Structures are given as C-alpha cells and as structure tokens.
C-alpha cells in the first residue's frame, strides 16, 4: 500500500515549553455544557470521564484539545488505542482512501486484506500464520475461545484473577466479575486462578523473591483436582491492563508454556491491549521468547480505527472453518488499510525500539518518585505500558484509593489526559512521544503526587 513519506517522530514532537496549555480551569464552561447536554441521553460512562468530564474536540500526535481551548499531553492514547498518536497522517490517509473506494465487502477477498495477512505472517513469531479480523477486542476474544474448543475438542477454559477480556458473557466469565448484571455465576467450565504479581505475590521464597514455581505447582494441582479434565486452553493477559499494569516475573510465561505443552492444553494470549508496539514488541509474549497457540490483537492495531484480530499457529488454522468465524465488519477494507498502515509506520520508523527506550526512561524517572514519596509503593514499565501503585504504608502495601483519585484529578487539571484505576495510576503514552514530553508528563504526575501526599497525610 502506497503511503506518504514523512518522519513519524518529527511529526509528533511536542514543544514542552508550550504544552500543556491550560487557558480555562478544566472542566471549562463549554465542556460542562456539552457534558450536561450529552448525558441527558448518553449513560454508562467510564470512571475516567466521571472523575474529569472534559469534552474533547481534536487531537494531533501526542496533544489533545478540549472545547474550551485547553491542550493536554496525552498519557492515555484513547485507552491504549492511538498508539501512533492522534490522527496519524499515514493512517488517516489510508482509511480515507478506502472510505472513498470500498467500505465493506463482507469477508470476500480484497487486495488490501491480502497485503495485511501477508505482512502479519511475515512479522509475527513462530508459525502464527492463520488470521481472522473483527471490530472489537471482546469479539476477537470470543472467537479465540471458540478456536480453543474447536482445535482440542475440549470445553473448559482457565484464566487468572483480575484479568480483563471483555464484556460479553464468555469474556466476562474469564475476568473479574464486578457486578451481578454480568451474571450471578460464571459460564460453566470457566475457571479463575491466581497469577504471579511481582509486587503482591501470594507465594514467596525464603529470601522474599517471588516463587513462580509455586504458582505452576498450584496450576498442576488445580488441573487435577479443580477441573473435570476437559480443559481446552489457558487464556490470560501477558500484562494485566485493567488490573493495574500488573507485570509477571520473567520466568512465568516460559514455565506456563511448558506446563501447557505437557498437559496438551493450548495457550491463548489476550494481547488486545499489549500488542502492536505498546510494550516495544509486536506481541508482549515476545519479551519472554514464548509463542502462544492463539493470540488476540487489537486497540493499537488500527491506531483508533476499530479493527482487531485473532492469530493462530499453523496446526490450528482449520479451526476457523468450524467456528462461524466471519463477522459483518471484520476485515473491511478501511480496517485492513488502517492496520496495514499502522504496521508499516511502526516498522519503517523503528518504533518498537523507541517504545522500549521510552519505557527505560520512564522507569528511571518513576524510580525517583518511589524513593521520594511516602505513598508510592511500586513503579513499573514495559515499553509504553506504565503504572504507579499508591499505598497508605509501604510496609503493609495497603491500597490508597483516595490518593489515586486525587492524583488523577490534579494531574488532569494541570494538563495531563490519562487513566485512573483506583490506587494504581495507569499510563499509556503514544509510542511516538519524544523523551522530553514523556518526562514533562511524569513531572506533572510527580507534582500531583506531592500535593496529594501533603493533603492526605497532613
């Protein structure tokens, strides 16, 4: 696909002396007006909107603008979606081309779809070379679960505490059920297990280090005693997003891969959030040298255009034939163009390496926050997937939810658009962000933490 030549990092560079730019204390009067008009009819808003109801009007690169003229540094990427920044020229150009040419042809073959699947087979690890496309992460997850069952002839699925896989019944049953409206019980055959959390481990060695082997031993015991021996697969996030950017120890996924192979269970990585450069790799599992049997891809895949996918290893491609895999919007020409353009930009501009560098810079800067603030219990980053955990006491690690809310609101008011998660602050800046802008955003968070600390611990 032909796309205009230009430098991504040059386009996205921000003058940190000029941004963020707050001209009216947010949420400003126009934001409040739009929000009041909209919410007369539109309900079910996310926590981040309820805590700070601004109305956004436009965005370019790493900057968001609200209707009152305030301009914010974006540390959210539209909730992990606009990985290449807002309105990336190459992606916008590609979508516009097919919006004028061919918007939808159901699942018929098109040249742009052919180019996309050939590119995916080229860049993905191992023999991940079977694909289907969808329009949401949840839909992709449900398709992946059907592949697990079709490929194995088995039914039960395992997942982990605080995983998040979507909002349909099957996906919800593999995550943290937060309300009765999701169902009084999980779908039969769905099992939840603890997973290693490097900051809050259940099992530790005598020296205090996390004991990954203890988790694997528990999984083995649960397979024998907690299931009916009809397990199709283990589905989990490589790094938990909604759970609070929870990082596993580096030996967890290799050991889980080995366990799945020994027990003839397929491994499914839900990489809707962690894929396509977010952590500095195409797939997060590449950090540990692991190739899953089934992978879901989404969010940054089309840089904001609704396109997701399921990738499977060579032996399981034919399972797509038996699961009614097609969808109304999946793989439409506009979606394929967005995904291919996003992929080409990441590849051509060396953005995987850049994202890894940003993660290293962020971790060093957040390390200062850990040392200087009483309420900062842990900091973590893998590429542009970052988190700061706030606690009432570093020894007890008691979560400090009130602090999380205040820090979120204070930093937003200073011009940082980002994501709340209770006591865990989540950050996902675009991977095109320059280091100075990244550090400016972290300085804003540092300042907000300091103000909150004085206010709550006075």
Task: Kindly summarize this structure in a few lines.
The chain has 458 residues and is an alpha/beta fold. Helix content is 37%, strand content 15%. The protein is globular, with a radius of gyration of 22 Å.
Rg calculated over all Cα atoms = 22 Å
At the third CATH level, what is the topology name of the largest domain? Aspartate Aminotransferase, domain 2
- Tell me the CATH architecture of the largest domain: 3-Layer(aba) Sandwich
> In what range is the share of β-strand residues?
15-25%
Overall mean pLDDT stands at 95
* Overall shape: globular
CATH superfamily of the largest domain: Type I PLP-dependent aspartate aminotransferase-like (Major domain)
Q: Can you identify the CATH class of the largest domain?
A: Alpha Beta
User: What number of domains?
Assistant: 2
Task: Determine the number of helices (DSSP H or I, runs of at least 4 residues).
Answer: 14
- Biggest sheet descriptor: 7 strands, mixed
Q: What order do the strands of the largest sheet run in, or round the barrel if closed?
A: 4-10-9-8-7-5-6
| Order of secondary-structure elements | HHHEEEHHHEHEHEHEHEEEHHEEHEEH
Helix/strand structural class = alpha/beta
Taking the alpha carbons of the first and last residues, their distance comes to: 59 Å
- The percent range for helix content is 25-40%
- According to DSSP, the number of beta strands is 14
Low-confidence stretches: none
Explain this structure.
The structure is a single chain. This protein has 458 residues and is α/β, with parallel strands linked by helices. The protein has helices at residues 8-12, 29-38, 47-51, 77-80, 89-101, 111-123, 137-152, 169-172, 212-225, 252-262, 333-348, 351-372, 401-413, 435-456; strands spanning 56-60, 63-66, 71-74, 128-134, 156-160, 190-193, 231-236, 266-271, 294-297, 308-313, 376-382, 385-390, 416-417, 424-427. The chain has two domains: 8-80 and 351-456, Aspartate Aminotransferase, domain 1, CATH 3.90.1150; 89-348, Aspartate Aminotransferase, domain 2 (3-Layer(aba) Sandwich). The protein has 14 helices and 14 strands. Strands 4-10-9-8-7-5-6 form a seven-stranded mixed beta sheet, with helices on both faces. The radius of gyration is 22 Å and the shape is globular.
């Amino acid at each position: 696909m032909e796309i205009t030549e230009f430098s991504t990092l040059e386009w996205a560079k921000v003058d940190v002396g000029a941004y963020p730019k707050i001209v009216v204390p947010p949420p400003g009067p126009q934001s409040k007006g739009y929000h009041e008009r909209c919410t007369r009819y539109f309900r079910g808003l996310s926590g981040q909107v309820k805590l700070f109801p601004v109305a956004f009007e436009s965005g370019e690169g790493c900057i968001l603008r609200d209707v009152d003229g305030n301009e914010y540094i974006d540390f959210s990427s539209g909730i992990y979606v606009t990985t290449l920044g807002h309105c990336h020229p190459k992606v916008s150009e590609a979508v516009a081309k097919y919006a004028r040419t061919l918007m939808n042809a159901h699942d018929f073959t098109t040249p742009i779809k052919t180019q996309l699947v050939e590119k995916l087979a080229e860049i993905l690890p191992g023999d991940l070379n079977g694909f289907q496309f969808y329009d949401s992460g949840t839909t992709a997850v449900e398709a992946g679960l059907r592949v697990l069952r079709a490929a194995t002839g088995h039914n039960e699925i395992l997942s982990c505490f605080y995983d998040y896989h979507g909002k349909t019944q099957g996906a919800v049953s593999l995550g943290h059920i937060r309300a009765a409206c999701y169902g009084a019980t999980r779908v039969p055959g769905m099992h939840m297990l603890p997973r290693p959390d490097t900051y809050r481990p259940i099992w530790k060695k005598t020296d205090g280090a996390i004991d990954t082997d203890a988790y694997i031993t528990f999984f083995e015991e649960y397979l024998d005693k907690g299931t009916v021996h009809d397990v199709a697969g283990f589905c989990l996030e490589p790094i938990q997003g909604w759970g609070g950017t929870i990082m596993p120890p580096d030996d967890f996924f290799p050991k889980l891969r080995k366990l799945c192979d020994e027990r003839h269970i397929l491994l499914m990585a839900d990489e809707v959030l962690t894929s396509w450069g977010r952590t500095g790799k195409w797939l997060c599992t590449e950090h540990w040298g692991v190739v899953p049997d089934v992978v879901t891809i989404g969010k940054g895949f089309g840089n904001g255009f609704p396109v997701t996918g399921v990738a499977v290893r060579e032996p399981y491609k034919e399972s797509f034939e038996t699961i009614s895999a097609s969808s109304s919007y999946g793989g439409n020409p506009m979606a394929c163009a967005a995904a291919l353009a996003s992929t080409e930009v990441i590849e051509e501009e060396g953005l995987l390496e850049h994202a890894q560098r940003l993660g290293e810079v962020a971790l060093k800067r957040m390390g200062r926050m850990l040392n200087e603030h009483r309420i900062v219990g842990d900091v973590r980053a893998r590429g542009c997937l970052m988190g700061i955990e706030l606690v009432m006491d570093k020894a007890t690690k008691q979560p400090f939810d009130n602090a999380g809310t205040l820090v979120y609101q204070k930093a937003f008011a200073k011009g940082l658009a980002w994501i709340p998660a209770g006591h865990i602050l989540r950050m996902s800046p675009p991977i095109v962000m320059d280091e100075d802008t990244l550090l400016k955003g972290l300085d804003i968070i540092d300042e907000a933490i300091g103000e909150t600390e004085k206010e709550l611990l006075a």
